[in-house]
Structure formats: structure tokens, C-alpha cells
Amino acid sequence: LKSVPLKQTLSFGPGVPDMAMASREVLHVYRQTLRAAGGFTDYNFRHYFIRRAREDFRAFASRVRQGSADGEAEQAFLSDANKQLSMLKRQSIVSQLYASAAPIVKR
Q: Helical H runs in 1-107?
């Protein structure tokens, strides 16, 4: 088996290169946020929250690359991201409880 360097495994997806500087905790929260956003039954909500998560984490990654984000800024970002994550989890459960019928186009 070929060993993959850690630098290649830490990535926020296409468009955000070299996220080796970001901590594993930030990456973990990012993946959890995308997973929670994917739990919405409504297409528009689901894609809005996925897009919003990508934008927020890419903005933070940009600040890290520019050197304007220190450990304190990372902790503040993680705190806010965890609050957003818990809200997404709660709202996706509600979305699943009150799922609407698929649009006529999809049937």
C-alpha cells in the first residue's frame, strides 16, 4: 500500500489548496457540518447549508493562509462552527420529521 502524505489528506475540497496548516479539529468540524447539511430533505435547504459551510470554512482557510488567524482566532471560529453544527443537526431532524412530498417534476 502506498502511503499518502498528511498534507494531501487535509483538504477542504477543490478550490482550497494546502490546508495542512488547519488543525484536525477544524477539518473534523467541517466534515461533520457537511454531513449534517446533507441531512435536510429539502433540496434548497440542503444545498444552501452545504454552500454556506464551504464558504465559511474557505474564508477561514484564506485567513489561515494569509497569516491573520492565530490560535485564538481558530478557537473562536471553532466555537462558532460548533454552534452552527448543533443548529444544523437540530434543524435537519425537524426537516426529516416534517418532510414535504417531492415536487411533481421529480415524481
A: 6-9, 24-37, 43-66, 71-97
19-38: per-residue pLDDT in tens?
Answer: 444 688 999 999 999 999 99
Q: How many CB atoms lie within 10 A of CB 5?
A: 8
DSSP state of 41: S
**Whole-angstrom distance, CA of residue 80 vs CA of residue 42:** 24
Q: Give the whole-angstrom CA distance, residue 81 versus residue 101.
A: 31
| Whole-angstrom distance, CA of residue 29 vs CA of residue 5 | 21
Q: How far apart are CA 94 and CA 56, in angstroms?
A: 24
The rounded mean pLDDT for the chain is: 81
Cα(69)–Cα(83) distance, integer angstroms: 19
Q: Coil, helix or strand for 107? A: coil
> Residue 14: helix, strand or coil by DSSP?
coil
